[in-house]
Each structure stands twice: as structure tokens, then as C-alpha cells.
Write a structure and sequence with these properties.
By secondary structure, the chain is an alpha+beta fold. The protein has a four-stranded antiparallel sheet with strand order 3-2-5-7, with no helix packed on it. Strands 4-1-8 form a three-stranded mixed sheet, with no helix packed on it. It has eight helices and eleven strands. It folds into three domains: about 110 residues, Alpha Horseshoe (Serine Threonine Protein Phosphatase 5, Tetratricopeptide repeat), CATH 1.25.40.10; about 70 residues, Sandwich (Immunoglobulin-like); about 110 residues.
Length: about 325
């Protein structure tokens, strides 16, 4: 192989000596990597060498490294390229030997390559991929060569749930993978919430009636306190007046009784104010209670103000 690079045909005569030496060095490294089964390094070195000087001997090294890496489909194409190009006239013997070796190795590799048949049930627009690589529609439903090992086969289409299947193909195996695309169910419609009905008019009336009732009871209570204070003040004032009448003949009192006179007037004023507050409170309370609206819940409730001497309040039935 290395000798072939030094005695290449006229087509290679334009390659510089430096390029030829570089390609030879890369070929040596590639062959050594093949022998120690470092197929990744071998593939890299033979590809670089073939890119500098394209020769069947170097492409054969590429194919052998691809076989070692399990890239059998790529190796098959490399072997087939060697056979298509052949060896030009007046090529070194090593070139013809490389072509013959490519034929033998391709014949041995072909029956070992696994195959998979992918069928799709669904729309005609379904897209199929194997390991992320698109599969032409013309290749769907027919056997397709693949490298040995694990593969992910996927089909998808608009409006359909994607389907993905993982398969592991052994050497020489043949598998059929059926992908069934099913329509995606439309999302359930979200019903609009029913409109919120306005609160019945009875609620505000009931609330208002309750407030008026509370205020009415409070007013009655305040009126009762006022009336009671007025009554007590009046009784005390009357007693004080009777006492002063006896001690002050002709309504003329001794100056020493001035304190009692002032007390009498204070009691009279207190009685007057108490009766005034009581009258207003009782009147307002009675008005509020009698005019408070009744809700259905309060239809059986009856409240009646009660006013008496020195007292006021309300009585009700439930």
C-alpha cells in the first residue's frame, strides 16, 4: 500500500512531494491503528490520507475501519465506491489488488447487514426517522439496511400522537416494525361559569330592618334611662321643695339655707333634662321599631314599646 503512493499513475503526478509524504505517514498510522483494533483512529488517518491523495488502497483502509466500528452501511458504500472507480490503466498492482479485496470483503459483508421494514398506519403525510435521520417515503414499507445494534424508529404527523419504537438488530437479522398513528383527542371544551345571580332584594331590606330594630331598641333603652333619671330627680326635687316650704315661711329663706336651695334647683334641672332625654329616646325608639321592615325570617317577631313612669322599654313576641 505504501509503495503504491510512491509510484502512483500520471493522475497523481501533480501531487507535491510534501503531500505525498504526508499521505504516506497517515497511511502508516492508519494501518497500525487497524492492527491494534483502534478503529476510530484508523478511520481518521485513512480519511485524511485519502483526502490528500485519493487512491483505492486508502479507501479500502477507510472501509475496513468502518466495518470495525459497526458502521456497516457506510463501509458498504466505501467498498462500492472502490468497485465503481476501479483502478486506472497503468496503476500500481496494489491498486488492482485493493479493488479485488473490496469485492471479496463486500460480498462477505452484505449478508451480515441487518434489515428493517417500517410500516406506518396513519396519514400519508407521516414523517419517519431512524435514529433521527429522515426515511424517504419511498423507503417506507420496504426492507432497509441498517447497522447492527440498537435503533430508535419514530413516526409523527400533525394532529396525531407520535409513535416511537426501539429495536435491537443482530447481525443478519431482519425485523418488521409497525407504527400505528392515532389522532390526538381534542382538548375538552371549558364551559363558561354560570352568571352570578344578583342577591334578592330581601337581603338588603332584612339588613336594613335589622339595623333599624337595633337602633330602636338602643333608643328605647336610652329613653328609659332618661325617664328614670327624670323621675328620680323629680321625686327628690318635690321632697326638697316641701322641706324648704316648711323652713322658709313666705318663700323667704335664711341665708344659711342657700345650699339647700341650690340643691333643690339642681334636682329640678336634672329632672327636666332626664324627662327630655327620655321623651326623645322613647319617641325615636318607638318610631324605629314600628317602621322597621320585616324580612320573611322575622315575620313572626313582634316588638312593642312600653313606656311608664320612670321607665321605658320594649316587649316582643317570637
Amino acid at each position: 500500500m505504501l509503495l503504491a503512493l510512491t509510484c502512483a499513475p500520471a493522475a497523481l503526478a501533480q501531487v507535491s512531494d510534501a503531500d505525498r509524504a504526508t499521505a504516506r505517514s497517515l497511511a502508516v498510522e492508519g494501518q497500525e491503528a487497524l492492527e491494534r483494533k483502534d478503529f476510530s483512529a484508523a478511520l481518521d488517518r485513512f480519511r485524511r490520507a485519502d483526502a490528500i491523495i485519493h487512491a483505492p488502497t486508502l479507501l479500502l483502509g477507510v472501509a475496513r475501519a468502518q466495518v470495525g466500528l459497526g458502521q456497516w452501511i457506510a463501509a458498504q458504500e466505501s467498498y462500492s465506491r472502490i468497485l465503481r472507480e476501479g483502478a486506472p490503466e497503468k496503476s500500481p498492482e496494489q491498486f488492482f489488488e485493493a479493488v479485488a479485496a473490496a469485492q471479496r470483503e463486500l460480498d462477505a459483508l452484505a449478508p451480515r447487514i441487518p434489515q428493517v421494514l417500517v410500516s406506518v398506519r396513519g396519514p400519508d403525510t407521516a414523517a419517519v426517522t431512524i435514529d433521527g435521520e429522515p426515511v424517504p417515503r419511498a423507503a417506507i414499507g420496504v426492507r432497509r439496511p441498517v447497522d447492527p445494534g440498537g435503533h430508535t424508529i419514530r413516526a409523527e404527523a400533525a394532529g396525531f400522537a407520535p409513535v416511537e419504537v426501539k429495536v435491537t438488530l443482530a447481525e443478519g437479522a431482519s425485523e418488521t416494525v409497525a407504527l400505528d398513528l392515532k389522532p390526538v383527542a381534542p382538548p375538552p371544551s371549558v364551559a363558561s361559569p354560570p352568571p352570578i345571580a344578583p342577591a334578592p332584594d330581601a337581603a338588603p331590606v332584612a339588613s336594613s330592618g335589622s339595623s333599624r330594630t337595633v337602633l330602636g331598641v338602643a333608643a328605647l333603652g336610652l329613653g328609659g334611662v332618661g325617664l328614670a333619671a327624670g323621675a328620680v330627680g323629680g321625686v327628690l326635687a318635690i321632697g326638697k321643695h316641701r322641706d324648704l316650704s316648711e323652713r322658709c315661711p313666705g318663700d323667704r329663706c335664711d341665708p344659711s339655707l342657700q345650699g339647700d336651695v341650690d340643691s333643690y334647683h339642681a334636682m329640678g334641672t336634672l329632672s327636666t333634662i332626664g324627662f327630655a332625654i327620655g321623651a326623645v329616646g322613647v319617641g325615636a325608639g318607638a318610631f324605629l321599631l314600628l317602621t322597621a321592615p320585616r324580612s320573611p325570617q322575622r315575620a313572626g317577631i313582634s316588638i312593642t314599646p312600653v313606656i311608664g313612669l320612670g321607665s321605658a322599654g320594649a316587649k316582643g313576641s317570637f
